[in-house]
Write a structure and sequence with these properties.
Number of domains: 3
Bound molecules: 3-hydroxybutanoyl-coenzyme A
CATH superfamily of the largest domain: 2-enoyl-CoA Hydratase, Chain A, domain 1
Number of helices: 27
Radius of gyration: 28 Å
CATH architecture of the largest domain: Alpha-Beta Complex
Largest sheet: 8 strands, mixed
Structural class: alpha/beta
């Protein structure tokens, strides 16, 4: 097999080039090639300095994550980085694209770094539940300082080359089109400079307060995660004056601990699950896409406005339609306010706000949608209203336009059937707030065309969403799984639990909020029959008393003017009255029972969704829950979590509480505890 590493001689400079597409991951072959190339440069008396650069779209984007579950192959990355650094001839890293993780560590092993302004450098290992394990935690603070090293390792967000340059992580910026030439020139300049600057030999600049301040400021953000604390501990080690060698020993030990843990396995699972989700089993990757130059949105309410903002932010013009001028004005006003709030936080410039709003065409004329290539209906959940809209759309939309509904529950096939072009109809289920939440459920109708699906999936990527394909089923993937959870949570109240107890179990599990906190946020009255005399469950009893959640300052909790919740004596009374009415004597409910009945039941529903072919793969379900509902990523989504919990335990828990268990779950127990 030919090596992905080649060397090119430019007089006394040896240029080492990696070509391991798509992202130049540091696979075993790359590491072996790098080792051989460095040896070649060191041994050759005619070579005075070296440059390492990559072909394709990026500098090394990290270790090869696919190798993490396989037996290690020499040379390991830390050895390669040490070897580069030990070279007695200067080595220059020439960086474009993204120097991430192990890629950033290779750059840190080099003696000099030159980058194009569009490049980014980062140590995102923490997002995989890991830490930079090739010396990065010890070299980075020595080169870029404690503060930046904490930011980069514990948060994992890459920084632009310009900032890296200011921090000393990049020595020089190059022109976008002349990286290689400038890197060679740089190597010529420094070829005779001695001593060679080695990151491991630099002292750590003292910054005693930095670690404590960083921990204090970010405690909430890191709640539940193991890896940020391990990253911080490694930087702290460097800051404490430990020798480089001691720091490396500590880094290795922490890296291995994280690598063996469940959290990293879960986070790596999600990295690949997210990428896998965009692939549709029976739609070839090379399917030609429909061109989307203008998007139409029907409805300027919270959803319609949020949906529009996604496209406007990506530079795609939007025509937004409402029935009344005041509703239209309110909707566009909210969009502007949201953009301005983003600008106030420094995440957008005033020019960008105007560009986004300038690409919006608000109108009361439905026929204006005729010029759109994709039209998304975002009105309230009512089948008759939706059918009426799609009947009208069928008459005015241009041939080939994609007609989408943002319904969260309703049958896409029934909607498509009112048109003469069901092949062009698809569900695009955004999650609220639609301009923020990353998930998009793409609902595939019985007749939805392959190129419509492929186009919507590609568009989702463009507007920075994570798209998952769902089949037509009530609530699709996410909301369908929410149903057993909410039903069981409400039953548990009747049987003896409190809203506080159930929410506490969910928050301790890592969810951003529990079922009742979520009900209060979304509105206890959602889906309510609006008859205060008809009390069929505890939710009805609350709704009948105008306890509709945060918006009425009373729901399952009481709220003050700042929406701070407190436990409600009245809710306790309502629950008690309802129990008496139903003749239920409350009993002690254990946290384990709450887990079994509100979380195992979700897993069971997920398994049914898979059996019915309404999701393509178990990992898609995990992606839905992570990006749509805030399931803790370190637990890898409900289906992954069930496997770490033990499918036998999940099945036993379901059976103990009398739930009919999905066949595929039972079968998977027999087949070694793995779901397909
Ligand atoms: N290892 C193996 N495969 C990788 C990979 C990696 N580090 N990074 C990306 N890939 C694969 C993806 O799975 C995808 O495969 P597919 O086409 O079969 O689905 C393909 O490369 C392209 O990736 P993206 O779709 O993500 O391409 P983008 O252009 O959108 O993004 C990127 C490129 C920013 C580099 C992004 O892929 C990324 O963030 N990669 C991961 C970076 C990372 O986490 N690096 C640290 C690794 S851990 C490490 O280095 C440990 C060390 O400290 C010892």
């Amino acid at each position: 097999m030919t090596s992905p590493i080649r060397t090119e001689r430019h007089g006394e400079i040896l240029v080492i080039v990696s070509d391991n597409q798509p992202v130049n991951a540091l696979s075993a072959a790359v590491r072996q090639g790098l080792e051989a190339a460095i040896k070649e440069g060191v041994a050759d008396a005619s070579i005075e300095a070296m440059v390492i650069r990559c072909d394709g779209r990026t500098f090394f984007a990290g270790a090869d994550i696919t190798e993490f579950t396989k037996p290690p192959v020499d040379p390991l990355l830390p050895q390669v980085v040490d070897m580069i650094e030990a070279s007695d001839k200067p080595v220059v890293a020439a960086i474009h694209g993204t120097a991430l993780g192990g890629g950033c560590e290779v750059a840190l092993g080099c003696h000099y770094r030159i980058a194009v302004p569009s490049a980014k450098l980062g140590t995102p290992e923490v997002k995989l539940g890991l830490l930079p394990g090739a010396g990065g935690t010890q070299r980075l603070p020595r080169v870029a300082g404690i503060k930046l090293a904490l930011e980069m390792t514990a948060k994992g967000d890459p920084i632009p080359a310009k900032r890296a340059h200011e921090a000393g992580l990049v020595d020089r910026l190059a022109g976008e089109g002349s990286l290689e030439a400038e890197a060679i020139a740089f190597a010529r300049e420094v070829k005779a400079a001695r001593p060679i600057p080695r990151a491991s030999e630099k002292p750590v600049a003292d910054d005693p307060a930095a670690v404590e301040t960083f921990k204090r400021e970010n405690g909430r953000r890191f709640r539940g995660f193991d890896a940020p604390a391990a990253n911080i501990a490694c930087i702290e080690k460097a800051a404490s004056g430990a020798s480089f060698a001691d720091g490396i020993t500590f880094e290795r030990q922490e890296f291995m601990r994280l690598m063996m843990g469940v959290q990293s396995a879960a986070q790596r699972h999600i990295f690949f699950a997210e990428r896998q989700a965009s692939k549709i089993d029976d739609v070839p990757a090379e399917t030609s896409l429909r061109e989307i130059k203008r998007v139409g949105v029907i409805g300027a309410g919270t959803m319609g406005g949020g949906i529009s903002m996604n496209f406007l932010s990506a530079g795609i013009p939007v025509t937004i339609v409402e029935m009344q001028q005041d509703a239209l004005d309110r909707g566009t006003g909210t969009m502007r306010k949201n953009y301005e709030a983003t600008a106030a936080k420094g995440r957008m410039t005033a020019t960008q706000v105007e560009a986004a709003m300038g690409a919006l065409t608000p109108t009361l004329n439905f026929d204006d949608l005729g010029e759109c290539d994709l039209i998304i209906e975002a009105v309230y959940e009512n089948m008759d209203v939706k059918k009426d809209i799609f009947t009208r759309l069928d008459k005015i939309a241009k041939p080939g336009a994609i007609l989408a509904s943002n319904t969260s529950y309703l049958d896409i096939d029934e909607i498509a059937a009112v048109t003469s072009r069901p092949q062009d109809v698809v569900g695009m289920h955004f999650f609220s707030p639609a301009n923020v939440m990353k998930l998009l459920e793409v609902v595939r109708g019985a007749k939805t065309a392959g190129d419509v699906l492929a186009t919507v999936m590609a568009l989702a990527k463009k507007i920075r969403k994570v798209a998952v394909v769902a089949g037509v089923t009530y609530g699709f993937i996410g909301n369908r799984m929410l149903i057993p959870r909410q039903t069981e949570a409400t039953k548990l109240l009747l049987e003896g639990a409190t809203p506080e107890q159930i929410d506490r179990v969910h928050v301790a599990f890592g969810m951003p909020m529990g079922p009742f906190q979520m009900a209060d946020l979304a509105g206890v009255d959602i889906g309510w029959h609006r008859d205060p005399t008809r009390i069929e469950n505890i939710r009805d009893a609350l709704a009948a008393e105008n306890r509709w959640g945060q918006k009425t300052k009373a729901g399952f909790y009481d709220y003050d003017d700042k929406r701070t919740p407190s436990n409600s004596a009245r809710v306790a009374e309502i629950i008690d009255e309802f129990r008496k009415r139903e003749g239920v004597t409350p009993r002690e409910i254990s946290d384990e029972e709450i887990v079994a009945r509100t979380l195992y039941t979700m897993v069971n529903e997920g398994a049914l969704i898979l059996e019915e072919g309404k999701a393509q793969r178990a990992s898609d379900i995990d992606v839905v829950w992570i990006y749509g509902y805030g399931w803790p990523v370190y637990r890898g989504g409900p289906m992954f979590w069930a496997q770490t919990e033990g499918l036998a335990k999940v099945v036993a828990g379901l059976e103990a509480h009398g739930f009919p268990v999905a066949k595929s779950l039972k079968d998977a127990v027999g087949a070694g505890g793995r779901l397909k």
